[in-house]
Design goal:
223 residues, mainly alpha, two-stranded antiparallel sheet, 9 helices, 4 strands, 44% helix, globular
């Protein structure tokens, strides 16, 4: 048992499920969850449309390269999809050796640093939600190279693919995001992902979204 099951952080930690098999089925196929995803993502894109254009212009003005960063990620049942982000670095890696962002990373642009600190670089992923590759809430998707690395070292790693990846998740609202310093850090994140899947409910999704709104602009792990 890792630390994540015993955390006392003020965030929605669900109780252990009584029927994990039924909960696992529901998180991936729930019509209610899909309706919330579509309505929520469409509304967010409409509300943030002026901001999206402003960010795109700032990225274009600051440095050469694409405005949108595309990278392959692993989704539900191991299906590969392309995730969208605003470009925040001078590189656009999508290969067998992807280096995670670190505090003070020299690859991050000035505009990118602001976007990452406020998590605004993730806004294009509302398109991924509309396309059905992601959900508003679920395990955060990792680069394929990181899936291969940690999947070979953490037994239940692949269990997180029982759900669609999300813009936010149980791990993220409990501080388990950002740079990974050791295997234990990733193990705690995976434990939170699988706990979310096994205990899933629409109420849990709402609680995670509410917690995300409270912490998103003051997360010390966002950089």
């Amino acid at each position: 048992m890792t630390d994540v099951a015993a955390r006392t952080i003020d965030a929605p930690i669900p109780p252990a499920p009584q029927q994990p098999a039924a909960a696992t089925f529901s998180v991936a196929t729930s019509p209610g969850k899909r309706i919330i995803d579509i309505v929520g993502a469409a509304a967010a894109l409409f509300v943030f449309l002026p901001l999206l254009f402003t960010i795109a212009l700032a990225i274009r003005a600051e440095s050469r390269g694409p405005v949108i960063f595309r990278q392959r990620r692993t989704g539900h049942q191991g299906q590969i999809f392309t995730i969208y982000k605003f470009r925040t670095m001078t590189v656009t890696e999508d290969c067998a050796d992807v280096r995670q962002a670190t505090r003070g990373d020299q690859r991050i642009t000035a505009v990118g640093a602001i976007l990452r600190k406020l998590s605004l670089d993730e806004l294009p992923q509302f398109l991924n939600v509309l396309q059905g590759d992601m959900s508003l809430v679920g395990p955060r998707p990792h680069a394929l190279a990181h899936d291969d690395y940690y999947g070979a070292r953490i037994g239940p790693y692949a269990d997180r693919f029982r759900a669609k990846p999300g813009l936010t998740g149980l791990a993220q609202v409990n501080g388990l995001r950002g740079e990974i310093h050791d295997l234990r850090g990733m193990q705690d994140r995976i434990d939170a992902d699988n706990l979310y899947i096994d205990a899933w409910s629409l109420g849990l999704d709402v609680a995670i979204l509410a917690k995300t709104a409270l912490v998103i602009f003051r997360d010390p792990h966002a950089y």
